[in-house]
C-alpha cells in the first residue's frame, strides 16, 4: 500500500518500482480518481465564471434593447437616462428572471416568504415607534405586505394636502420634507420613514411634501394591507390609533405655534 501511494503521489519517483499487478491497478485507480476530481473542480469554477458572465451579458442585451426602443419612440435623453438608472438599481447590472423567482417564492412555505421580507425590511420597520412593541408574528405579517419602489431625483413621493393611503421606508437615497408653505423642514436619508399616521387615520391629509434629492429605493406599506393585518387585533389597533391621534395633535400644535411666530415676526417688521 505504501508503495502504491508513493507511486501515485510520485514521491521519490524512480526510487520505487513494483511488479505487483494489485499495486499497479491501485496506482492507476488513484491517479484516475484524482484526475476526475481535478476535472470536476475545474468544471465548477468554469460554471461559476460563465454564469456570472451570462448574467452580465444578458443585462447588457436588455439595456441595448431598451436604448433601441427609446430611439425608435423618439424618447428624450432624460427619459432614457431614467430607464437606464431604473434597470441599474433594480437588477444591480445582473439580469435575473424576477417573475420566475417571484413564482418560486410564492410556492414556498409562507414562513420562508416572511423570512425573505424580514431580511430585507426588518431594520427599517423596527425603527418605527408605532411598531416597536408589536408581537414578532404580527410584525412579520406587516413586513410581508411591503412593496419595493424606485423614485428618481426630483420626484414627489407624497404631496401635501392629498389624502394619505400609505407609509414609506427609505432603503437608499435622500429626500427632503417640504412644508405646505414651501419651506424645507428636514432631510430624510437611508433608514428614514414617513406617512405612518395615514395607516391608522382614514382620510387624513398629508401635512408635508416629500421630494427626492437623488434616486431613492423605497419600500411602501399601503393602508389597505396594513389594516387587513392589524384589524383582527382590535386591542392593539386601538392603542396605535390613540398614539397616532396624539402625535397628530402635537404636530398641529407645533405648526400653529410656528405660524403664529412667523406672523408675529412679519408684523414687527
TrEMBL record:
A single MF term (Gene Ontology): voltage-gated potassium channel activity
PROSITE patterns linked: CNMP_BINDING_2, CNMP_BINDING_3
GO biological process per UniProt: regulation of membrane depolarization; sodium ion transmembrane transport
CDD domains given in the database record: CAP_ED
Single GO cellular component term: HCN channel complex
Record has Electron transport as a keyword: no
InterPro entries: cNMP-bd_CS (IPR018488), cNMP-bd_dom (IPR000595), cNMP-bd_dom_sf (IPR018490), K/Na_HCN_channel (IPR051413), RmlC-like_jellyroll (IPR014710)
Protein keywords: Membrane, Transmembrane, Transmembrane helix
Superkingdom field: Eukaryota
Gene3D superfamilies noted in UniProt: Helix hairpin bin (1.10.287.630), Jelly Rolls (2.60.120.10)
SUPFAM superfamilies the UniProt entry points to: cAMP-binding domain-like
Residue spans crossing the bilayer: 24-50
Domain Cyclic nucleotide-binding positions: 130-247
SMART domains: cNMP (SM00100)
PANTHER family linked: CYCLIC NUCLEOTIDE-GATED CATION CHANNEL SUBUNIT A-LIKE PROTEIN, I[[H]] CHANNEL, ISOFORM E
Name of the protein in its database record: Cyclic nucleotide-binding domain-containing protein
Source species: Chironomus riparius
